[in-house]
Structure prediction request, 106 residues.
Amino acid sequence: MKKVFIIFIILVFGAAGYLYYDWHVKTKEMAAEPSITLYSWTDEEGAKHFTDTPPPKGARDVETSKGYKYVELPLVVQIKDNTIEFYKWIKKKIFKKKEKKKDKKN
Prediction:
């Protein structure tokens, strides 16, 4: 029984540690670089390029715009959002059944 408890505790702390690490890394990425500069330019051969690095010398029609770097939400936030959506779905299903029963009685 003690071995099972110890293994369970190790798994719980391991999962909590991973979730904290994932949250820490992704929120740090979001805060460190919330926006980037996007460049569009035409080279000597007439090909249009879209990059996040500055164009080389000799580029024509250079345009810059601000964009945002996509950073995936931390796993904890994804789990929370999915749990809330699942709760709403279950609640909707339960109240539908109760409403149907009330309608049949009337």
